[in-house]
Design brief:
The complex is a heterotrimer. Chain B is mainly beta. Chain B contains one helix and six strands. Chain B has one domain: Folate-binding superfamily (Folate-binding fold, 2-Layer Sandwich). The longest helix of chain B is centred in the middle third of the chain and has 9 residues. Chain C is built from four helices and eleven strands. The chains are: A alpha/beta, B mainly beta, C alpha+beta.
């Protein structure tokens, strides 16, 4: 890694041993908190996983390191710190599956790439099916996954029972008939992903500027974006990239961007720590409920959107009830666990349920957003493809379909086929 | 969140279905392609006070025009959509 | 312990399933209202979530310009008769097979209902003649109060009535 300013320690068994001897008091800080300069080549708005990954890939793959990442709070304080940490490439449509499989391959090499333990755990994802029709749909989805190299196995009831004997197989309304197993899916540690990208980007000279809210855009006489106004003063830049997830419409409204996006709140829950009980990620096919167990032992679970637009980062009781009912129907044993915390995150739902990585109609302004439920798992590929777009002004091949114009031209990427009704995706 | 339905009174949001921003009328079948595209896909998606359509499916089964703050979840008003904007 | 079609009696609480209840829905035509429709049947239908009693029929307000008419009768022509009377001013359709009605009465009736109904049933705001279309345990219900005992009638869609009874039994047990 090229290094500037501060010295960066490479993490290894030797650095661990050395610091163990000195009682772990001498670890250097992982990345410096920068103050803004007057101008940069590229400004990334948003210091979440996607923004920091974009900066890292710009610096490491495109040799552009005169970059600032502007974060209004602290890095990873938005959706990057509120998701349920699942990584997967199990989509049914080609445009999505190609992109998420690319992301999965990046996850598989991420720790070596970043020299950071992001705790990627390929424990497998089991999507349960409860009817013949749902099995057929999973066969089709599994075939798409296999064709993209993601791998998929269709399990029958007994094979499913061997993996997760605690499930309620005898549910009268929704008997478990089997599952689609995606062995390479699993979880990663969300905070470590943010910090790993931040450290690796900062080591290559990227400025990470926290507590710096973008309040407007600088435009030239032709209307092109040439910088931003912030709470820490104006900063000029040749290009500006937005990676602001749930707040895409708000930032976009500063330049009058009209977007096919609604911001919705989705809730998540974690129980007290338990001994290992749930071996992988399990999703209920007959209701909105999914669950995994964190390395600390807490059961991390969630369900559907609250269903109404929200920027509140907190949800309402009907969905709490719905999620818990789903959990009790699927695995009655979790009724014994006590919920420790619940929270809400804001996601930018698009009109077809799929993301956008594209130039905006305004010169100099680029957009990475509309991540729907897929933000966390997309982090590496999102950063990689957005960096490619910012560096070359043409889309990366795996993100070539994730464009604005698909809505106008009717080339929607609508996994569920529900149309322009974001709360149904 | 509770919505005061103009017919039924104070009710939990569980009884309602959220449709989306109150977008105004469909541009009509003779409108140009861009107007249709705008109507179908573009949303203002404001953070703050906004007008929305909710359907009271588990109540009077009427469309309700609700003024609500998307940041605080405060509900300012609710009236029957068929009575139009006042 | 409860129902199976006959009823349950306890101190301060009686529950019975009403038999032979006819139902019909009334939807006002354009420019018609409770007054213009009511004058064809000897009165005026109150607008709002309220009941109007005309003869042996109770008209329950279920929405703007819509009522659920119900009567204790074995007659099979309840809806047809109503449709004939209201012709031109309202559309009437027979709902007699669609609903089951449970009557809950006694001191503890309000307490029992309040375990499932997310609206205020306090006598200051919900009393004799009041009605509500709402949900209990995700089951759609129409509730109207008959007297100040209090007595409530609760109509549920017929296919949901076993689930409603399940909720009733469960809530009663947890008193």
């Amino acid at each position: 890694m090229g290094r500037r300013g501060e010295s960066f320690m490479r993490y290894s068994i030797f650095s661990l041993a050395r610091n163990a001897i000195s009682g772990h008091h001498r670890w250097p800080r992982q990345w410096p908190d920068a103050t803004p300069r007057e101008a940069y080549s590229i400004i990334i708005i948003g210091g979440g996983g996607h923004g920091l990954a974009t900066a890292y890939y710009l610096a490491s793959r495109h040799r552009i390191s005169n970059i600032a990442v502007l974060e209004k709070g602290w890095i990873g304080s938005g959706s990057a710190g509120r998701n349920t940490t699942i990584i997967r490439s199990n989509y049914g449509l080609h445009e999505n599956e190609a992109f998420y499989e690319f992301s999965m391959k990046l996850w598989e090499g991420l720790e070596q790439d970043l020299n950071y333990n992001v705790m990627v755990s390929q424990r497998g994802i089991l999507n349960l099916y409860h009817s013949d029709g749902q099995r057929d749909a999973y066969v089709r989805r599994g075939n798409t996954m296999v064709m993209h190299g993601a791998g998929a196995e269709l399990l029958d009831r007994e094979q499913t029972r061997r993996i997760a004997p605690f499930l309620n197989f005898e549910n009268a309304r929704f008997p478990i008939m089997g599952g689609l197993l995606h062995r390479r899916g699993g979880t990663a540690r969300h905070d470590a992903v943010v910090w790993g990208y931040a450290r690796a980007a900062a080591a290559l000279g990227v400025n990470i500027i926290q507590n710096c809210t973008v309040t407007g855009f600088q435009r030239d006489s032709q209307g092109a974006v040439v910088g931003v106004e912030t709470t820490r003063g104006p900063i000029r830049s040749e290009k500006v990239g937005m990676c602001v997830a749930g707040h895409t419409s708000q930032v976009g409204s500063m330049v009058g961007l009209k977007l096919p996006i609604e911001s919705h709140v989705i809730q998540a829950f974690v129980t007290e720590g338990l001994k290992p009980v749930i071996p992988n990620v399990i999703t209920f096919g007959a209701g909105h409920f999914y669950i995994s167990q964190s390395d600390k032992g807490g059961l991390v679970f969630g369900g559907d959107l609250d269903g109404y637009k929200s920027y509140a980062q907190r949800g309402n009781m009907p969905v709490v009830e719905d999620v818990c009912e789903g959990g009790m129907a699927l695995m009655p044993m979790i009724g014994r666990a006590r919920i420790l915390r619940s929270w809400g995150g804001i996601i930018d739902m698009s009109m077809d349920g799929s993301p956008i990585i594209d130039r905006t109609p305004i010169d100099g302004l680029y957009l990475n957003g509309a991540w729907n439920y897929g933000g966390f798992k997309a982090t590496p590929a999102s950063g990689y493809c957005f960096a490619y777009l910012l560096a070359n002004d043409t889309p990366h091949e795996t993100a070539a379909a994730l464009r604005f114009d698909r809505f106008r031209e009717g080339r929607l990427i609508d996994e569920k086929g529900v149309g322009p009704q974001p709360n149904l995706h | 969140m509770r919505i005061v339905c103009p017919y039924c009174g104070d009710r939990d949001t569980e009884e309602f279905i959220f449709r989306g921003e109150a977008l105004g009328r469909h541009p009509g079948l003779n409108s140009d392609e861009y107007a249709m595209f705008e109507h179908v896909y573009h949303r203002t998606n404001l953070s703050g006070k906004t007008s929305e359509h909710w359907y009271h499916v588990q109540g009077c089964r009427n469309w309700i025009l609700v003024e609500r703050d998307t940041l605080t979840h405060t509900i300012y008003s609710a009236r029957l959509a068929k009575d139009g904007e006042s | 312990m409860i129902l199976k079609g006959i009823g349950y009696v306890d101190e301060g609480l009686q529950i019975e399933e009403r038999q032979n209840v006819a139902f019909a829905s009334i939807l006002a035509r354009k420019n018609q209202n409770g007054e213009t429709i009511g004058e064809l049947i000897g009165g005026s239908l109150r607008e709002g979530p309220l009941t109007t009693i005309l003869g042996d029929t109770v008209y329950i307000g279920t929405g703007p310009g819509s009522w659920l008419a119900t009567s204790s009768t074995k007659a099979t022509d309840f809806a047809d008769n109503l449709a004939t009377k209201l012709a031109g001013r309202a559309s009437v359709s027979d709902q007699s097979g669609a609903y089951c009605v449970t009557r809950i009465t006694g001191d503890r009736a309000r307490h029992l209902l309040q375990r499932g109904v997310a609206i205020n049933l306090h006598p200051d705001v919900f009393t004799t003649g009041c009605a509500a279309t709402t949900v209990i345990a995700h089951i759609a219900v129409v509730i109207w109060q008959i007297d100040i005992s209090p007595t409530y009638d609760i109509a549920t869609f017929r296919t949901y009535s076993p689930d409603f009874r399940h909720w009733l039994a469960h809530s009663w047990r947890s008193f």
